[in-house]
Design brief:
The structure holds two protein chains of two kinds. By secondary structure, chain A is an all-alpha fold. Among the domains of chain A are: 41 residues, no CATH class; 162 residues, no CATH class. Chain A contains 28 helices and four strands. The two termini of chain A are 19 Å apart. Chain B is an alpha/beta fold. In chain B, strands 3, 6, 7, 8, 9, 10, 11, 12 and 13 form a nine-stranded mixed sheet that branches. A two-stranded antiparallel sheet of chain B has the order 1-2. Chain B has a two-stranded antiparallel sheet with strand order 4-5. In chain B, helix 8 crosses helix 14 and helix 9 packs antiparallel against helix 10. The longest helix of chain B is centred in the middle third of the chain and has 21 residues. Chain B is globular and about 55 Å long. Classes of the chains: A mainly alpha, B alpha/beta. At the A-B interface, helix 7, helix 8, helix 24, helix 26 and helix 27 of A face helix 7, strand 8, helix 9, helix 10 and helix 11 of B.
């Protein structure tokens, strides 16, 4: 595209398409910014998490089922004891409170405390004796020679103080008003940690952005239930990552058959009206998953399908379920096709007839949806909106749609076409970084690498993008206005300040500015950072600078 | 007044003292001092360092109203001994900013003191480097692995195992970081909101570079302000200041309660931001007044929450350097050199302003612009550590403030 190093394009490569530059990255990319992205894209297995991967979703769900069984048994045992009326009630909480990890008993909204250091359990307005005040943080005596940071971490077992609330701009709704059982919390934390490390270590972050894009396209919410909280991370790791650079048909199939999606959109409850005659009186179809497949995952709303198509697809995928804890037909926690729940017979979807073929009937329907021109249009539009502009340039959308169709829905080819198209680079940087891009970008610019994911989760909560917890199946918004709202910008300012404080030891502000923006920073931004009254303020100003926020 | 100032000799300094502290022996005669050993056994000392980030204007915090050149130099920011711009009288030469009411009361009770015309050995004017020097205790910038307060803790005999440190805030100030274990504590309330100063700086940047983002941020900040005022009735009395002052008070109160606990930490460090008053610094109202009000609230909260431990406590508020003696073109002051250190606490030999006052005549100003530093701040800090904890001069000059052997610990700061 250009001759000689192009730092402006390198900044675009990292901010528009990637996760922000780390020290030295701009130099590495400046010679050929497009090639830099393409090189990452074509690296084998680049999207997979293979080092220290968390447990599979299936085994985590099995562990959860086992834990629930033990809790029930314990409850029965205690209830059987004389004079156990009260303690029986408390038993589950006590068991659940047994630490399974450093954050086992802390609800996600309070994860911040893990990184904020000990907090005496009383505000100044509460009358407390000094000794009571000091008890929580002080009893955990620090090991000899430990650093402040590690000492702070010791008290994270303490209950979060009353009255601590996170002023999230959008109500974050993690399903955690009460303490989560250890398996749930441990899995979520491990998944968040693995994802964060992958994002921090990515070379350009283009592939990680694509993973996050697809994860949001096939949105599931961890807020729905304990099972979803377990399965949301595995969903991204098992359904999205292996297919994000493969064929869309494979991605679609993997997403719709993953237990997380089945459970999120209730398909395990959907029963063919004529299935297993007489066995399921009073129960029937649930159209939830079928509707979202058409509206959100493939064709897109307003593309011409009808209610009849929704109902037909719902019938086609009856029997797509998840094996429960007592299942004899399948592995507990895994996808299970239940033939006797499946609506028998041939079905007509979008004018095409599908013969009865059990689970294959649905697979065939998905394959056709995956190669439908409306699906190609829908995906191309969303990709361009996410990466380039809220109002996607039509010619660029057309080009990607064509690539999608010509390649048989090869997502690496489509992604490659996006970053090979000059129109994707020349558009003005009108979009604002999403909270994820902002938080990870700040950490990458300073080389800050937290060992636990608490700050990552807290930051995403505060900015209204709690990890794997969108408000609905349509995922988080990809429009700048959704993020650059007054409360959103205020939250960004507070978080920038907080990150500035935490990251001040990680990098000199001017060095971080050079890392992130090279020579492209405006004189005003450079001056604001230079003239800041402290390192933390300087970093906060860098993070809030238009060049850092816009992409 | 003036006579007294010239009569008292302390090494090479002329000392400015209030009339009440004519018991000069406290300051000068080593015989009046308790020996460190007996001090250590009889007392249970507490020591708090407050870092004021941004370079506090010492000439506004503790205005030398009696200096004939002060009023002209400090222009519209200057205070007077009476009238509309009256400051609080300390010794008749030096006054205190009107926001420092509690500090002035402590001063009158001989429990607060001021060191004026002081600075570390750092003479350039970078905040970052200046704070590194102030907090690390190293002679120059560039080393940020540990702070002098932490190394002081590490140097204490192991029998003083309870002598633990406390770092207040989401991240502990450098001064308390290092090899000795320290506790971390942040005031409740989740994420501390960014201060007005940062908000204003970002808004200024957006005004030049991104007005749409600026509009959104401004609306968000205004909404937040209204919400905060609704939640805190006392904030209404001082619009804009309530949140900030309360934050500073809460941080101090929490730290004080931890320090007061029988087996709690004995040494703490806090940092307050926002003293970089390039614009609209204000006199009795304004940016600096708000911050000083917060600092005053912090002093008061320490006294209120330390309980009996107050009598063994010393709190010292220090800043990386001072500001220009003259007012700049935007009703503020720019980076300077000499400034003040404020001492408060039941253990302070107070009721006096300690200074080798250089005066504010043009030829006496450092580089023709700043209050000249005549007292090495490290002498003050070494003196406090020596008298509170019995650390030897040698230890202080080696590991704690390296390469400062010629800077003798100032004696007599502790009652």
């Amino acid at each position: 595209m250009t001759i000689g190093p192009d730092y402006a394009q390198a900044v675009t490569a990292f901010n528009r398409f990637g996760l922000g530059a780390r020290p030295g990255d701009l130099n590495a990319a400046a010679g050929d910014p497009q090639g830099f992205l393409l090189e990452e894209l074509w690296t084998a297995n680049i999207a997979l998490i293979r080092d220290r991967a968390p447990a599979s979703g299936q085994s985590a769900l099995q562990a959860y089922y086992l834990e629930q069984q033990q809790l029930r048994a314990e409850r029965v045992r205690i209830a059987a004891r004389p004079s156990a009326a009260q303690s029986a009630e408390r038993a589950p909480a006590m068991l659940a409170g047994r630490p399974g990890g450093p954050i086992a008993t802390i609800p996600p909204t309070a994860l911040s405390m893990a990184t904020m250091g000990p907090v005496p359990p009383a505000g100044p307005s509460t009358a407390q004796t000094p000794s009571a005040l000091a008890a929580a943080p002080l009893e955990a005596a620090p090991p000899q020679g430990s650093s402040l940071a590690s000492t702070s971490a010791i008290s994270t077992g303490a209950a979060p103080p009353e009255g601590v609330t996170m002023a999230a701009p959008h109500e974050a709704k993690p399903a955690a008003a009460k303490p989560q059982p250890p398996v749930v919390q441990a899995q979520f934390s491990a998944e968040a940690s693995a994802r964060l490390q992958k994002q921090l270590q990515a070379r350009a972050g283009f592939v990680e952005r694509l993973v996050a894009f697809w994860s949001n396209h096939f949105a599931v919410s961890a807020a729905k239930s304990a099972e979803l909280r377990i399965a949301a991370g595995p969903f991204e790791r098992e359904a999205i990552r292996p297919n994000a650079l493969g064929k869309f048909s494979a991605l679609l199939r993997a997403a719709e058959t993953h237990p997380a999606m089945i459970l999120f959109l209730d398909n395990q409850n959907s029963i063919g009206p004529n299935a297993g005659p007489g066995k399921f009186a009073g129960r029937g179809l649930n159209e939830n998953l079928a509707r979202e497949i058409l509206e959100l995952h493939t064709l897109g709303v307003g593309s011409g399908y009808t209610q009849a198509d929704v109902t037909e697809l719902a019938r086609i995928i009856t029997g797509w379920s998840v094996a429960g804890p007592e299942s004899e037909a399948g592995q507990p926690g895994a996808f299970l096709f239940k033939p006797n729940w499946h609506e028998p017979g041939q079905r007509t979807l979008l004018g095409k007839t599908y013969a009865e073929a059990g689970v294959e009937q649905g697979r065939a329907a998905l394959d056709d949806l995956a190669r439908h021109p409306a699906t190609a249009r829908h995906i191309a539009t969303k990709l361009v909106r996410h990466f380039v502009a809220d109002d996607p340039p039509v010619d660029l959308v057309n080009a990607l749609q064509r690539k999608f169709l010509d390649s048989g829905g090869d997502l690496a080819v489509v992604a490659s076409a996006l970053v090979s198209d000059d129109r994707a680079w020349s558009a003005r940087p009108t979009k604002i970084r999403t909270p994820l891009e902002f938080v990870v970008g700040a950490a990458r610019a300073t080389g800050f690498s937290p060992s636990d994911p608490g700050l990552y989760l807290q930051s995403l909560n505060l900015l209204g993008m709690p990890l794997w917890q969108p408000g609905g199946p349509n995922g988080f918004s990809d429009m700048s206005d959704a993020w650059a709202s007054p409360e959103g910008m205020k939250a960004r300012l507070d978080l920038a300040w907080s990150m500035g404080q935490r990251m001040r030891g990680a990098a000199e502000p001017m060095a971080a500015l050079k890392t992130a923006l090279g020579e492209t920073a405006s004189p005003e931004t450079r001056q604001a950072v230079e003239r800041a009254e402290s390192r933390e303020q300087a970093l906060a100003l860098l993070f809030m600078a238009p060049e850092f926020q816009r992409r | 007044m003036a006579g007294q100032r010239s009569n008292l000799a302390f090494t090479r300094r002329r000392l400015v003292q209030s009339a009440g502290a004519a018991a000069a022996g406290v300051l000068c005669g080593a015989g009046f001092l308790r020996t460190p050993a007996s001090a250590a056994s009889a007392r249970d000392p507490r020591f708090v360092v407050i870092i004021l980030r941004g370079a506090m204007d010492g000439l506004s915090a503790i205005p030398p109203v009696g200096d004939p050149d002060y009023a002209d130099l400090h222009g519209e920011l200057a205070f007077a001994s009476s009238g509309e711009r009256a400051a609080l009288k300390l010794d008749g030469f030096f006054f205190a900013h009107p926001a420092l009411a509690a500090f002035k009361r402590m001063y009158d009770e001989k429990r607060a003191a001021v060191i004026h015309a002081t600075a570390t050995g750092y003479r350039d004017r970078s905040h970052f480097d200046g704070q590194d020097v102030l907090e690390s205790g190293y002679p120059g910038p560039g080393r940020t692995d540990s702070g002098w307060l932490n190394r002081a803790l590490a140097a204490l005999p192991s029998s003083a195992h309870r002598m633990r440190g406390l770092g207040v805030g989401a991240t502990a100030p450098l001064v308390i970081r290092g090899p000795a274990p320290a506790l971390g504590w942040a005031p409740p309330g989740g994420l501390a909101p960014a201060g007005d100063d940062l908000g204003q700086r970002v808004l200024d940047l957006y005004a030049h570079r991104d007005p749409p983002l600026g509009q959104r941020l401004r609306e968000g900040l205004e909404a937040q302000k209204i919400a905060a005022e609704g939640a805190m009735p006392q904030a209404k009395k001082n619009p804009g200041a309530g949140g900030l002052v309360d934050q500073m008070r809460l941080a101090a109160a929490g730290a004080a309660r931890l320090l007061a606990a029988p087996d709690g930490p004995r040494v703490a460090a806090l940092a307050f931001d926002g003293f970089d008053t390039h614009q609209n610094e204000g006199a009795s109202q304004g940016l600096l007044a708000q911050r000083l009000q917060g600092l005053d609230a912090a002093f008061e909260a320490f006294q209120a929450n330390l309980g009996d431990a107050w009598s063994d406590s010393v709190i010292v508020a220090i800043t990386e350097f001072g500001r220009t003696a003259r007012v700049n073109g935007t009703r503020g002051t720019d980076h300077g050199t000499g400034t003040v250190a404020l001492l408060a606490g039941g253990a302070v030999a107070g009721g006096r302003v300690v200074a080798d006052w250089p005066g504010l005549k043009l030829e006496r100003l450092y580089q023709g612009r700043d209050l000249a530093p005549t007292t090495d701040l490290r002498a003050v800090l070494k003196g406090l550590l020596a008298d509170q904890f019995g650390l030897s001069e040698r230890t202080l000059a080696q590991g704690i403030f390296p390469d400062t052997a010629p800077v003798a610990p100032m004696k007599g700061l502790i009652a």
